[in-house]
Amino acid sequence: MKWLEVSIEVEPENMEILSQLLMEKGIQGLEIIDPEDFRRVLEGNRYLDFADDGLIDCYGNKTIVKAYFQADRDAETLKAELQRDFLHAMENPPNNIQLRLRDDSEWKDSWKKHYRTFFISKRVIIKPTWEDVIAEDDQIVIELDPGMAFGTGMHETTRMCAVLLDDLVNEQERVLDLGCGTGILGIIAAKLGARKVICVDIDDAACKTAEENIEKNHVADRVCVRQGELKSLKGQKFELVIMNIIADVILLLLPELKEYCCPGTNILLSGIIRERKQEVLDEAAKQGYRLIRELNEGEWVAMQLCTDF
Prior knowledge:
The protein is an alpha/beta fold. The chain is built from 10 helices and 14 strands.
């Protein structure tokens, strides 16, 4: 599929207003390349012993925003409209605006060269479809094609959830994976023995990817995918709930989640940055949840809560 890519160099102070103006123009996707973010990763990553100075320097000092529009938009008209809007909205508007047609095949499979077989928890192995692995008797192999959805298993937030699942899942449980992405955590729960798993996501692409991965791993008899929100499951109860989302969404859902829990339901929360941990804990306590276990990796926190109602 082809897209019209608009690439803009922008000063950091103009980032928010520029992003808003692009949204109003009907963008289909947004990418922000911030050299400061890259430098922070290199400075704070204990696993990197060396990084070529040239790699850092090539990012320069300007933030680059790339917005993607439908390919049938008229490029010159769009460029003129953006220049006019930027001039009206900013004291120092960007003047370097580049447009070109891109094919999503350029990036949609690029992750494959970095994706290899690995242990996500003590028993669970994640492998891409193009690699072979021989597992021992107590090990579980999950075949995963992330596609364009979040959840390769390589991110700290997903790994911590997998570690918690490895210790928790039993054969009697009904599991809810809320914000399922690729379906990786729901599939892990099923492979570990969960009786029934419902994966929910609002994103159509994520749901399609999850369905494909569920079929690939032969758990379609126990795992189903629903596109929608928590309220679409009204009347259902779960013994285990997984929410690997972000703190703001977790805070929003914690009060509502109670009606979907049984006495003693375990709730796994991840996607929480350290700075928001106490905020989530305070809201959890206010809603009657009890903290059982906490994991930390990098700047991320995961926690296991239990219902006390």
